[in-house]
Sequence to fold (263 residues):
Amino acid sequence: MMQTDFKGFFWLVEGPSDIRFFECRRYKGVALVAAGGKKNVIETVTALTQDPVSSKLVGVVDADVDWLKPIENRPSNILSTDPRDLEGLLIRSRSLDKLLSEYAAPQKIENFEAKTKKTVREYVRDVSEKFGKIRAANLLHNDISLKCLKPQNFILPNKWDYDLDKVYEFCVSRGAAASTDELKALVAGLPCTDAWNYVRGHDAIGILTGGLMTEIGRGGRIDNSRVESALRIGIEDEEYKLSYISQQLNHWHPTDTKINQHT
Fold:
């Protein structure tokens, strides 16, 4: 519950994983509140626009593809990651290198990168972009739910590769387009931009986990939750401070009070 007599600030975030990420990065006097999804964050902040608590409230959401389909009447105290989401920020950081040193075999990484002519980071980005573009095309043209589209369901047996034909067929069966050819045409017509703008973090985590379970891992138990947790822990303060979301939060908070200090 948000109280107007609270002397600090509220950061309203999407969910529990965001709470865990921001817990050690929040400023002194900031309370973290999980809203249960991006839609709830936006609706809550919007509904409280005229309430006194609004001056103490910041909504923190994933940017997703807002650059492609902007939020209408977006309140100024809704801040977002860029590009896309926190998971993308983590995978672009040294967190990935630390995770790979713990869970991947160096020789297997070397063999995989020699075979694909891509680094692990580039490969995760490029495969995730393919899934993300399908999601973006669907959002712009049909907007049916594709939450059930999970990369791990389309990984090929015993190798770190994906059956994209089946991905298209699956999305068409759900109503994303009338045919696979139509869906491919919609994807081809999307704007050219930095690939990370199309990379959905949960897809990227699943794809990275798939690699650790097939071609580059040391063996042993690994899952999406463990990968995501390791990435959250691994990002360095200097990297986070350079991120867009950190700079926005720093800019939003007053600098002439003790609020602008980390706990």
Q: What stands out?
A: Residues 104 and 217 are 4 Å apart (CA to CA). The first strand starts at residue 9 and ends at 13.
